[in-house]
Amino acid sequence: QAQLVESGGGLVQPGGSLTLSCAASASAFSIYAMGWYRQAPGKQRELVAVISSARSTNYADSVKGRFTISRDNAKNTVYLRMNSLKPEDTAVYYCKIDLRSGLVYWGQGTQVTVSS
């Protein structure tokens, strides 16, 4: 069983930046992919970015060129650097890990609000 602890959300002005962090209690060897999803009010949860154990990445079209996902296997932590934030980026952001066993775990979510 794994637990995820997210941090870094908050209120930021349009054009600003934030970095989200998600620390996983699972061993780095057992983790295949780590990713970030978001859910805005009244909308379905959507993929933001994902990074595999080989560090290949995939981004939603809406965040390409603005967001960067990275992972530190020594710390079992995944990061999401968000630049040039827009009001439409406002959502609850969730961390997700996919274990090699096939199990999936979600974080509790962290609120990101982009507003002037």
Would you tell me the structural class of the helices and strands?
A: mainly beta
The proportion of strand residues reads over 45%
- Series of H and E elements: EEEEEEEEEEE
Sheet having the most strands? 7 strands, mixed
Estimate percent helicity: under 10%
Overall pLDDT confidence: 94
Count of DSSP strands: 11
Our Rg estimate from Cα atoms comes to 13 Å
Give me the number of helical elements.
0
Which of globular, elongated, flat, extended, rod-shaped describes the shape?
globular
Distance between the termini: 40 Å
User: Low-confidence runs (pLDDT<50, min 5 residues)?
Assistant: none
Q: What's the gist of this structure?
A:
By secondary structure, this protein is an all-beta fold.
List the keywords.
0% helix; 7-stranded mixed β-sheet; globular; 4-stranded antiparallel β-sheet; mainly beta
What this model shows, in words?
This protein has 116 residues and is mainly beta. The protein has strands spanning 4-7, 10-12, 18-24, 31-39, 46-52, 57-59, 67-72, 77-82, 91-99, 104-106, 110-114. The strands form 2 sheets. Strands 2, 4, 5, 6, 9, 10 and 11 form a 7-stranded mixed beta sheet that branches. Strands 1-3-8-7 form a 4-stranded antiparallel beta sheet, with no helix packed on it. The radius of gyration is 13 Å and the shape is globular. 28% of the residues are buried. The mean pLDDT is 94.
